[in-house]
From TrEMBL:
Protein name: MBL fold metallo-hydrolase
InterPro entries cross-referenced by the UniProt entry: Metallo-B-lactamas, NDM-1-like, RibonucZ/Hydroxyglut_hydro
Residues annotated as domain Metallo-beta-lactamase: 20-197
PANTHER family: METALLO-BETA-LACTAMASE DOMAIN-CONTAINING, METALLO-HYDROLASE MJ0296-RELATED
Organism annotation: Candidatus Heimdallarchaeum endolithica
Xref: Pfam families: Lactamase_B (PF00753)
Source organism, top-level taxon: Archaea
SMART domains, A to Z: Lactamase_B
Length: 275
């Protein structure tokens, strides 16, 4: 685990096994906020151990925030089962639909014994803690229940998996809403951006490049021949997801016909490049 001081009151915990994932803590005036809880209670024990060493840490006033319902962001909730756990209101539907299946599918990733604990405080559009200058707000994109956190005092924006290197992962067909969310991020006066799985962003260049990708995806005009190997892999996954969600009738449309051709081309290229 790597620990970084972010701004005057933020602490970033970066885990590397089984893959790089960030947990972000903000020590506010009244509450200590922990954004996402990674893969289980053992991970959170190490986070709390470190936080207890901080002079301003308030262990009785911990508030947990889940940026979305993917397993690698919520399995540590069980360590905080008696605390307030915040999420966007669509979380409950998504959690009910997939949480148990993911617990079985990814059981080998558990850090300690995981029991599923869902959020107990849901919000629609936004939730503001004025004493701490912390704002949680709905930001659908990577998933329909995705939400973000803005530390208005330090001007730090936590975006979960909505922004990723090199491309965002698509999980639904509402690309327009995803675009709106990233455009909203561009309007924020923020000094740093914390993502779910990447390094700390010191500018908005990755947000902009993610947006360019989404613009092209929406138009069905993605140039796959300029992609790197990793970009090809992610775009192939996105095409597979999109084509699995559209109807047979929609697949006859020009855009989706191109997606099908691109998917075949990418699969062939990746197979060759893997050797």
């Amino acid at each position: 685990m790597e620990i970084q001081q972010i701004g005057k009151r933020g602490i970033l915990f970066t885990f590397f096994e089984p893959y790089k994932t960030n947990v972000f803590a903000i020590i506010g005036e009244k509450h200590t906020f922990i954004c996402d809880t990674f893969l289980g209670p053992e991970s959170m024990k190490s986070v709390i151990k470190y936080l207890k060493e901080q002079k301003k840490f308030l262990p009785t006033n911990i508030i947990i925030f889940n940026s979305h319902a993917d397993y690698d962001h919520i399995w540590g909730n069980c360590f905080f089962s008696n605390k307030i756990i915040i999420a966007q209101e669509n979380f409950e539907h998504v959690f009910r639909k997939k949480a148990q299946d993911e617990l079985v599918k990814y059981k080998n990733y558990q850090k300690g014994k995981v029991s599923l604990v869902k959020p107990n405080l849901l919000f629609h559009s936004k939730l503001f803690f004025p004493e701490d200058q912390i704002i949680f707000f709905s930001s659908p994109g990577h998933t329909i229940e995705s939400a973000s956190c803005f530390d208005a005092q330090d001007k730090i924006l936590f975006v979960g998996d909505n922004v990723e290197e090199p491309f965002p992962y698509i999980n639904n067909l509402d690309i327009e809403t995803y675009i709106n969310t990233l455009e909203k991020y561009l309007s924020f006066d923020c000094k740093l951006i914390i993502t779910g799985h990447d390094k700390v962003l010191k500018d908005k260049s990755l947000v902009k490049s993610n947006l360019d990708y989404l613009y092209s995806l929406k138009l069905g005009d993605v140039d796959i021949f300029k992609f790197t190997y990793s970009e090809k892999k992610i775009h192939r996954m996105n095409l597979q997801k999109i084509l699995s969600l559209v109807s047979d009738e929609e697949k006859k449309e020009k855009k989706y016909q191109k997606f099908k051709r691109d998917l075949t081309t990418l699969s062939t290229q990746l197979k060759k490049e893997n050797y």
